[in-house]
Amino acid sequence: MYGGVGVALNEPYTIVEVSDSPEFKVESGDERAEMYALRIKERFGINGGLRIRVLEHIPPHVGLGSGTQLALGIGYAMTKHLGMEISPEDLAKVLGRGRRSGVGIYSFKLGGFLVDGGAGNDDIPVLVMRYDFPQDWLFVVGIPNIERGFYGKREEDLLRKLTERLNERNECICETFRVLILEMIPALIRRDIVGFGEAITRFEIEVGRVFSHVQGDVFRSPVIGKGIEFLLENGAYGAGQSSWGPAFYGLVDEDNSDKLLKKLREFLREHGGGDSFIARANNSGAQVMTS
Description:
Layout: E1 4-7, E2 15-20, E3 25-27, H1 32-43, E4 50-56, H2 66-81, H3 88-95, H4 103-109, E5 113-116, E6 127-131, E7 137-144, H5 152-169, H6 174-190, H7 193-215, H8 222-233, E8 238-241, E9 248-253, H9 257-270, E10 274-280
Parallel strand pairs: 3-4
Antiparallel strand pairs: 1-5, 2-4, 5-6, 7-9, 7-10, 8-9
Helix pairs in contact: 1-2, 2-3, 5-7, 6-7
């Protein structure tokens, strides 16, 4: 269930700093940080003091994978600082990440364009494909001021409801696989931004139709749907909703990214406000720096 497709972005990003300290303390603007740090401390028997500072973090629950990057960033920084060689996959298991999607884990480890094979056998999803994403293909991203994405128990309940429906009706999402295998991936390899954009738009609509049974429509909010339509009408090659949203995005080339970002900011001002930015792919994954 829930095979995933995604691209690692260069921003927004998470920065975690770990240093020696007389006591164990966590400093972060994200309340989840201490939970992740304590879980690593307990699992690996860390008895000494450490100072864990989250200097930058991705906005939580907006559809940009903040939880996985924060968890793995803290876990990887702590274990590296102590000379341990623990893989991101093993850290993910300890931290309870990757139970449905492996995109966040492999974004952290490898970066690039990623396809995972979905969850099964109580293990993290297997990596099916990883490919460098063109650096001159950019994403214009909007985060409207609406309800944050689904998470925690609410997300669990919605996914259970969706799974039951798919099993009862024996529904097939074969069209998403056709688009992915026969359109999206070949266009990426050919560096055909037009074909790739058309494929991601179709892919997002097909996935949205399945999830509409629990999120209310093809896209979770009318503002997201209007925003995606706006991006396509104003030059984006493709567009969609990231995870549960509210983040939505448009694929654009470098020459037109600034112009589309300016138009998106006007759109958001007219629809309740929000944040917007331009991002390109991160093809390297997380980086470790020592001093």
